[in-house]
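Exercise 7. Given the components listed, write out the predicted structure of the assembled complex. Treat all entries as one system.
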Amino acid sequence: MNAPAGQNPEILSARADFPLLARPMHGRPLAFLDSAASAQKPRAVLDALRDFYESEYANVHRGVYLLSAQATDRYEAARETVRRFLNAPRAEEIVFTRGATEAINLVAESLGRSGRFEPGDEVVLTVLEHHSNIVPWQLMRDATGVRIRAAVADAAGNVDVDAVFREVSDRTRLIAFSHVSNTTGSVLPAREICHRARERRILTLVDGCQAVPHAAVDVQDLACDFYTFSGHKLYGPSGIGALYGCHDLLASLPPWQGGGSMIEEVTFERTTYAPPPARYEAGTPNIAGAVGLAAAIDYVRRFGSETIGRHEDAVLRYGVDRLDAVDDVRLIGTPAERAGSISFVFDGVHPHDVGTVLDREGVAVRVGHHCAQPAMRHFGVPATIRASLGIYTHAADFDALADGLGKVKELFRP
Amino acid sequence: MNDLRDLYQEVILDHSRNPRNAGRLAEPSGTAKGHNPLCGDLITLDVLVEDGTIRDVSFDAKGCAISVAAASIMSDMLKGKSLAETHDLFRRFQDMLTGPDAVAENLDKLEVLAGVREFPMRVKCATLPFHTLRAALDNQSGTVQTE
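Answer.
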């Protein structure tokens, strides 16, 4: 097939920024198509981590010495970088977490303790959610007696606004959904969902893990109450992520974990809590992780999220076309708008076997249920093969995938 | 491709496409479910034991070629074996796949699975049927998980 039109030459050369991608795999060039699970790291992030540990590291918000002051400045500067990245109004609205999973647990736990939810109140999710946007709400349900409803997807894997609001009732207090599905790559109409929810005074939480690497996000334009993403899917270190929460909510909700840094005054009788974001950051945070995440965001901003999105769209369309042209491939999810991921099955061969053969061909894909078992049931498959892309993915990686699938056919259908 | 050919030998592909002893027993003495959450392999296995000897084994497996073939080959070999022989067979099978030396000692038809050794991520697929069998022999309730 011809090289896809609409690629950006500057982004095409970004691959050289990622040292790991030069590593041969089973004697072949590595075609890394699992960025939706975790992305590789550019040298800019690796250097930022090493420089920070070598010359600026100390604990934050504690020491009176210069190093601690500088480390605190770097940590808070990272918060400002995330604020700007999401266009949040205030830096205090950005809470650093271990990742999106921890952020959703934070919100579910704090909301659950807030007394805002009564038995019979409802939380609306979608059938495409990652387990990290299902299980925390089930834990909250067990503590509060709320009911969970799930909006359905259509056969192509689209979840439209009406599907979401069919599940909404007078008792709905919160809608939590993925901006982009980690399985099908479906882009959900986040802006429409959040605006309609706000009109009805329903809170919204958007899981942006699979969105922020591929598109510009503006939480004010979305009108969401909470937005979260994981740093490691955005070329940052693992173990760091961020939660945006609108200030009124963060300032009024109770903390979810107790410890150092999150208090104003502690006595054995009573403790008063610090204002956000400190209220939600008990204990020594992942300081270097925040610095690394800021470096990753700076790296992405060099290209611009919109430019990255346009470029990746061209590569992703090429990938869809390449896969669609393989006889034995059936795409799982053909959403109207797609970002990041393509799921498929290979006729008559289990995804796990396909994954093993592809690995030996140097092609790294994810096989399994992608922590989205309800989505698997929706599509009636036990597992899929998922190819997902990042800023460094080239059309040639999808060529390697298609060639690898030829090997699958050779082995399993001699 | 060579180690892939070792892994996916014709015998293995044949067993995975046409598993022997597929189905359920009418009156098993033990039943267990096995699940490999990593790839979704799911096996329900029935066993009939009389006088300390396995008389019949049957299973229903949904999973990858390795787990289905392992279940099929294993079930073919077990009929008439004592429980002690069965446990010994499992030990030798595990040794072949994960032991310090790659020795296939009296494993008969199971030796075709020796290639799994080169694919550490797939060892659990090959051993799931035996783990499930062991649970069925103990008639444990619940599901055996590889993770």
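Discussion: The mean pLDDT of chain A is 96. The domain at 9-41+305-412 of chain A is CATH 3.90.1150.10 (Aspartate Aminotransferase, domain 1).
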